[in-house]
Design a protein that fits this description.
Layout: H1 2-36, H2 42-53, H3 56-66, H4 70-95, H5 99-116, H6 127-155, H7 182-218, H8 222-228, E1 279-284, E2 290-293, H9 294-299, E3 303-310, E4 321-330, H10 331-338, E5 346-351, E6 356-360, H11 361-365, E7 372-377, E8 380-381, E9 391-393, E10 407-413, E11 436-441, E12 451-460, E13 466-473, E14 479-480, E15 482-483, E16 493-501, E17 504-514, E18 536-542
Parallel strand pairs: 1-10
Antiparallel strand pairs: 1-2, 3-4, 4-7, 5-6, 5-10, 7-8, 7-9, 11-12, 12-16, 13-14, 13-17, 15-16, 17-18
Helix pairs in contact: 1-4, 1-6, 1-7, 2-5, 4-5, 5-6, 6-7
């Protein structure tokens, strides 16, 4: 029984050896990624690969469940998978060598494949995962070799029983080390060797890995560059009319603060791009290929715009919508530099992380639509997570076909010849926004006190504009509500009404009517393939 318990103990130490080897693998890979290929982080590359291959329903579930924390949830899941796989590799190496090393090698091959197939891969991108695999395998072999020696010595039977003690012989109070069994001495030496190497390798992996990742994320000091960036004064600004913002507790602010603005993209970590090295390429079906620097874009002159953005993943009554002031340049002016050839009907925009979006050409060249390349958001240079230094902002289209962040390329093409990231994943190639409305207060699930209370929220119909909003209580008649003054047809409006709330449970429904006279779609539709629809109906409990 004691031997069985001792054997289980060595299985646990083998799992620890596997964890340390996995940590060494990642640390060495991160170190060499910092030196030769910043994008060659195995965890981030595998994470990006997972994002690419996960079926559309699972993506919707992740966004609905975790919201802007979906990337953190994915990284946590990958971290747990790495811990489990590393522990199993250590156990396999102890029980049946070299299966543990083979398992580690398979992980290295998979991470290498994920890295070298990413967009913008550099020639040396394969090196970090390969060197990481070699280092992890060496540490795993050395640790398990010491562990096996320790186990063999600890489980070895005593060489012989001690002779009976003669009562006339004085007792020995402290045996000499030479009197101890050889197996006990060997076990002690092997145990110290195992834990010594484990401590050195483990601490080194943590220090090197954390430092390499931290340096990789901050070495260019892009955030400092962003904060110090001085943008030119815009040639024109947007006048905010009186009455554009209602003073109603609980209602969404007219302008969504940058830190609260929704973020949905495929970038596992936020790209850091120095504006001095940023370049935008305009090519494809053009008269002349054009390459622009950040300064070239600024030299075209900036104007201020107010535009509401909506994510296709926004559920009825959801929060994946926001309104902001933008500084930018009309995309039609940028495309004009290259000269668009006849026959083109789409622009395929590309992000630095390889993401692509398919935008109808007419949405970018229409003089009546403010499709822009934005460089600032709510009075400051674009935040890193919202596309610094340059992103697209196009009113009237869901973000997945128009709002490319960390922009690097505009390819003029056709829908017949090219497709974007989300199209083969079950989403429409063209995605005009379905206008909608939302109740901000009373909040779902929060009880309110009886008496006169406000019902308030926002409504949007980009490129058309909201004409009116109506509310129905307990399936009663639709009552027009008070609207804020619209800034323009590309922004949301706020609305509110006073309600004499009586104790009990009530249903509050809201719908919008746009300036074309169309009523918001009542029937519920899922997010895919081109955005959700339906009237929001909220259950309100009144005390």
């Amino acid at each position: 029984m004691a031997e069985r318990r001792s054997g289980k103990r060595f299985i646990a130490w083998a799992a620890l050896a596997g964890l340390i080897s996995g940590a060494v693998f990642l640390a060495v890979a991160e170190l060499f990624a910092l030196l030769v290929a910043r994008a060659a982080s195995p965890v981030l590359a595998v994470g990006g690969f997972v994002i690419d291959i996960v079926p559309q329903p699972f993506k919707e579930f992740a966004i609905a469940t975790f919201g802007e924390y979906d990337k953190i949830a994915l990284l946590a899941g990958l971290g747990l998978a790495v811990v489990i796989a590393s522990a199993i590799a250590g156990i396999l190496q102890l029980v049946r060598a070299p299966l543990g090393v083979i398992a580690l090698g398979i992980a290295g091959v998979l991470s290498t494949a994920a890295i070298v197939t990413r967009a913008g891969v550099t020639p040396l991108a394969f090196l970090p995962p390969v060197l990481g695999t070699v280092a992890g395998a060496v540490i795993l072999v050395l640790l398990i070799r010491r562990l096996r020696r320790w186990r063999e010595a600890a489980l070895a039977p005593a060489a012989a029983k001690k002779p009976a003690v003669d009562p006339s012989t004085p007792p020995i109070t402290k045996p000499s080390p030479t009197d101890l069994p050889a197996s006990a001495t060997n076990a002690g030496v092997s145990r110290r060797g195992f834990f010594g190497l484990a401590a050195i390798a483990g601490i080194s992996a943590v220090v090197v890995g954390v430092a390499a990742r931290a340096v990789s994320m901050t070495v260019s000091s892009v955030e400092s560059i962003r904060k110090a960036l001085k943008l030119p004064t815009p040639a024109s600004t947007v006048t905010i009319p009186d009455g554009a913002e209602l003073d109603v507790p609980g209602i969404s602010p007219l302008f969504t603060p940058n830190e609260d603005f929704y973020r949905v993209d495929t970038a596992l970590t936020v790209p850091t791009i120095d504006p001095d090295t940023w370049r935008l390429v305009i090519d494809g079906m053009v008269d002349e290929r054009v390459e622009m620097s950040f300064q070239d874009l600024l030299d075209m002159g900036l104007d201020e715009y107010v535009i509401t953005l909506t994510c296709v993943s926004n559920e009825v009554g959801g929060e994946l919508v926001g309104n902001a002031k933008w500084l930018g340049v009309p995309i039609r002016d940028v495309l004009a530099k290259a000269g668009v050839k006849s026959g083109a009907d789409m622009v395929l925009s590309r992000s630095v992380d390889g993401y692509t979006a398919s935008t109808p050409l007419e949405s970018l060249t229409d003089d009546n639509l403010d499709a822009i390349l934005a460089v600032a958001m709510n009075g400051e240079p674009l935040p890193l997570e919202h596309g610094f230094p340059v992103r697209m902002v196009v009113p009237g289209l869901y973000g997945y076909v128009s709002a490319t962040k960390w922009l690097t390329e505009l390819k003029v093409t056709t829908f017949a010849d090219d497709e974007a990231y989300w199209t083969p994943r079950g989403y429409s190639a063209e995605a005009p926004i379905k206008f909608s409305s939302r109740v901000d207060t009373p909040k779902l699930g929060e009880a309110v006190e009886a008496g006169r209370i406000p019902i308030a929220g926002v409504a949007w119909a980009q490129s058309v504009g909201i004409d009116r909003v109506e509310v129905s209580i307990d399936n009663g008649e639709w009552t027009p509500v008070t609207l804020s003054k619209a800034i323009n047809d590309d922004t949301w409006v706020q609305w509110f009404m006073e309600w004499d709330a009586t104790p009990g449970t009530h249903y509050v429904a809201v719908r919008a009517i746009n300036k074309n006279g169309d009523t918001q779609i009542e029937e519920r539709a899922p997010i895919a393939p081109n955005g959700s629809s339906g009237w929001q109906r909220s259950l309100v409990r009144v005390n």
